[in-house]
């Protein structure tokens, strides 16, 4: 591949010059990736890995159409948005056309963290309020303002690290949370928890600026809120003078399949006040966006503080011609290659295959997902739902040995996370699940959860894939994993009752 350094030399130089908090995946034997294409990544030896987690390369690694658009614009011009340029307004027009009508004003920045930081500023300027309601296990970015509102991060710090202006509501998790699938109305029950927080906050003389949530929690464990939850929360937050921020950094741009935005799973009657996006909108290019209402934008502008930074140019350079050309190309690829449709078809197939594993393996506690956003909750005890953390980590490292990259995350690091590039195929889905089937059997036999005779009856399910929806190249190798950092926080909501089925969002 013509790499200037060996893997050992690269690792040694990294240890010398890169901050120690910048961790690598698989620390004992990290991967050195030198190129990627579509849903595949290649190491320095030319070995191919199936990427099941890289939502940043949204339309696929190194997509030729996106590269061409970037190169063409780079040859002409790249500058900040203080100058007029058609790419900026054209992209803003195309992007807002995918959103509800009232979300019409864009601020282009450089990362998901910048987008969420700006969203907080917009919310606080709107009515002069300061307090923020966030969710358990939430993650919204790495800058200080966002670590402050991300329990996924601040719970790892010293005791009492939560700021006074931050209020944490229960995660609307109907499998592992406070109100579960046997509750008659979990959406309203979880929303009432937010209402209680607002009332308590107001008693203490504080005012709510915003409620912020990923439309589906990713680092929090692939949690899909029950339908109706966001509507009720927005009602309570608006009554308190606050705004609703929907973080779509990891789950937007058609990933859920039948909708372009994950918040639309809640129903047509729900529209957030601010939507944030991250690098997937540029297929990994450093660009992001905040979209809000005209009313909120005008309140922000009325402050007299221009949003400009000479160090990073922030919004001024975030909307540069090259970034906007790339953003336009990504939107065109999603449409031309029917990646939303692919997310629906492949996602449903993946869920079907994984549901079969739940019937076969006692380690599989819950399968949840929409489109190409899927979680597998591994448990040691299906009734108590005890997280199988060690087993999940063992599984993902075993997958790495077979050249599949998957990750485990959530508050107990026991959730297998699928959020691959949108070109993920039927063959990819079957390949991964077949490998998981074999590895789960091995783990269950080794831990005494399954006898050898039981294991012998678990013949792998044979299924024909829809060739019309598949990619031209199937995966013949095996697997790999990424080790996600998780909040080390105990979940006390275990139940001895056997769960009963409940309505779930499906594609």
Report on this model:
By secondary structure, this protein is an alpha/beta fold. The chain is built from 15 helices and 16 strands. Strands 1, 2, 3, 11, 12, 13, 14, 15 and 16 form a 9-stranded mixed sheet that branches. Strand 12 and strand 13 form a beta hairpin. It is globular and about 60 Å long. About 11% of the residues have low confidence.
Count of beta strands: 16
Largest sheet: 9 strands, mixed
Q: Mind telling me the C-alpha Rg?
A: 23 Å
User: For the residues shown, what is the average pLDDT?
Assistant: 87
Pick out the low-confidence regions: 308-314, 455-504
Proportion of helical residues: 25-40%
Sheet-strand content, in percent, reads 15-25%
Q: Could you give the distance between the termini?
A: 41 Å
Sum up the structure in keywords.
seven-stranded mixed sheet; single chain; 15 helices; globular; nine-stranded mixed sheet; alpha/beta; 507 residues
How is this fold's topology laid out?
Blueprint: H1 7-17, E1 33-37, E2 40-43, E3 48-51, H2 64-74, H3 86-96, E4 105-109, H4 112-127, E5 131-135, H5 144-147, H6 151-154, E6 166-169, H7 186-203, E7 208-214, H8 229-239, E8 243-247, E9 274-277, E10 288-292, H9 294-301, H10 314-318, H11 321-336, H12 339-360, E11 364-370, E12 373-381, E13 386-387, H13 389-401, E14 404-409, E15 415-418, H14 426-446, H15 452-456, E16 480-483
Parallel strand pairs: 3-14, 5-6, 5-7, 7-8, 8-9, 14-16
Antiparallel strand pairs: 1-2, 2-3, 4-10, 9-10, 11-12, 12-13, 12-15, 14-15
Helix pairs in contact: 2-11, 3-11, 4-9, 7-8, 12-14, 13-14
